[in-house]
Amino acid sequence: RLNSMTVDGLKPGTTYVFRVRAHTDGGYGTYGGEIELETSHEDMLAIGDPNQPTILAVSIAGGIVLLIFLVACFVISGRHCGYIKAKQDPDEEKMHFQHGRVKLPGSRTYVHPHTYEDPNQAIRDFAKEIDASSIRIERVIGAGEFGEVCSGRLKLPSKREICVAIKSLKAGYSEKQRRDFLSEASIMGQFDHPNIIRLEGVVTKCKLVMIITEFMENGSLDSFLRKHDGQFTMIQLVGMLRGIASGMKYLSDMNYVHRDLAARNILVNSNLVCKVSDFGLSRVLEDDPEAAYTTRGGKIPIRWTAPEAIAYRKFTSASDVWSYGIVMWEVVSFGERPYWEMSNQDVIKAIDEGYRLPAPMDCPLVLHQLMLDCWEKARSDRPKFGQIVNILDKLIRNPSSLKQLTQSSAWQDANAQDCLTVATLEEWLDAIKMGQYKENFSAAGYVTLESLIYVNGSELNKIGITLPGHQKRILSSVQNFQTHGAHLQV
Ligand code: AMP
């Protein structure tokens, strides 16, 4: 087993892009993410021990025999050759040398298939070619954008037979349709996570073009929930949401922005495991500034999309977090349509004016609070997917935290006065809907309202209140408290 590679003859002050894949008797594996390295401006590349020859050490989990395959992409005077690297977020990851050592990224980065000059190469790199004779189509289960979706079975040599979903491209397709259709497979094939739909492979060698994925017995989450209205416990719902958040954390760690996260694009298997799906490119609006509002109807899913993504196409993991909040609302309301029958234009206007979806029936306060956090206007104030996973994990470990339900709207109206008098720190936290942090404060020795004068951002971090939206709410209320005393404006 080889897990290091010496690369010599490199030019100083030059960026190289490496990709690694395993080679076993079974053939080639898929490529890992790109590793971008810049040689130092001195005349020797200093990676690893500076006294050693140049060594690129790559850790491989579970590899057997490894062949390091290098695609050296010389980036000379800013120009890539071979293929271009594309990142959805250009601010991210470029590796830096630290005292002669290279920092390998903690995770892989997603490669957009359009960055390949030859899209068929992306398919070869990221998807396994399956022989059509190993597939048995059984029945039609749905309609996709490009053709039918069927269920069936896949039997690969020396593997047990499994149930699969088979998406096929309808006959008479154009070359562009074939490319767009298969782009979903070259995206999906880069992911490997229990909450992301798994690609088994593709059939491209014959006229019939197919994408084969794992089969999800319960179909899409929205219709599944509507069919089972009221039949799941809150813990089960939170478990589903936890899975979706975990899949989304994985995608955002890979710098992949989904843009169309909605319950209809989540699939559910027989164990109630939810998996993110729908990675097609064709619906992603690249060049049409009108598409959000007009004729191309439904191209930007307005109800699920963050305001900055609707207004100026700022799609980021933070806009995916907004959509995730809408998915939370869909799940807790068992598949209700967000904003009911309001028109898209009315939704856009209402959101701009500060309106947010109210808690669904029987919704735990903490969950609605988390939704509202996902719908913060400023995207940097929204939680990250990693934080959402942690919050949901805590709720699952401590189900009593789900007991406190959002109050009826009558209660909310009664309390929606400008001024509220609070006498204790607990009352204050409840009043600003931050009751979940009572323990954080008391454990840190904050007992009285007066002690709050010492609270600031770094103090909140220290006591474990890290969500930017929550910090903002607490700090602005503290400030208000300092000016108005026990008369707290909420
Ligand atoms: P899509 O084109 O991915 O939106 O798929 C269309 C419909 O086919 C979905 O809404 C699902 O009902 C069904 N479907 C797609 N993929 C699967 C799968 N892996 N397992 C079960 N049903 C699926």
TrEMBL record:
Keywords from the named record: ATP-binding, Cell membrane, Kinase, Membrane, Nucleotide-binding, Phosphoprotein, Receptor, Signal, Transferase, Transmembrane, Transmembrane helix, Tyrosine-protein kinase
InterPro entries according to UniProt: Eph_TM (IPR027936), Ephrin_rcpt_TKs (IPR050449), FN3_dom (IPR003961), FN3_sf (IPR036116), Ig-like_fold (IPR013783), Kinase-like_dom_sf (IPR011009), Prot_kinase_dom (IPR000719), Protein_kinase_ATP_BS (IPR017441)
Gene that this sequence comes from: EPHA4B
Domain Protein kinase, first and last residues per copy: 135-396
Principal subcellular localization: membrane
Domain of life, source organism: Eukaryota
Domain Fibronectin type-III: 1-42
Protein name: receptor protein-tyrosine kinase
Classification via Pfam families: EphA2_TM, fn3, PK_Tyr_Ser-Thr, SAM_2
Subcellular location: Cell membrane
EC number: 2.7.10.1
Enzyme class: transferase
Gene3D superfamilies: Immunoglobulins (2.60.40.10), Phosphorylase Kinase, domain 1 (3.30.200.20), Transcription Factor, Ets-1 (1.10.150.50), Transferase(Phosphotransferase) domain 1 (1.10.510.10)
Cellular component aspect of the GO annotation: dendrite; plasma membrane
UniProt GO BP: axon guidance
Organism: Latimeria chalumnae (Coelacanth)
